[in-house]
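Team,

Forwarding the record for the chain on the shared tracking sheet. I've put the sequence and predicted structure together so nobody has to dig through attachments.
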Amino acid sequence: MASISAAQLKLLATEYMFNFERAKAFLAAQKRESKKKVPGSSIPAVTRFSLPADPKPSRSSCTPRVPRGPRGPTGYNLFVSTMSPGVKVSLAAKLYKGQSLPPRAAITEVARQWKALPDAERLSWNRRAALV
């Protein structure tokens, strides 16, 4: 296995966002372990090296969580609640006698209509939802 220089390790640490000092300690331990051999054999001994865990910040040092209230509806939510009754009626009118409307049929149709809306109309629904 090829050796890695400290500069290369530091570059990798910044690029892949890992702790340089812990990686350096790990590589040093691996190098020491690779020199050990099983007695009476030329095969290196395989040992497991574990790094000490990073200290976890205490709860008291963290900023306290601020409870949020319920979120308001989005433009999509407002569109669905407004359009779904009419869509259910129009889909039910297309069914044969004795057939029932599949549970997700209405919401699927409303979602298709939402995707087909021009951006300006979607924006108007989002503005209405912001006022609610």
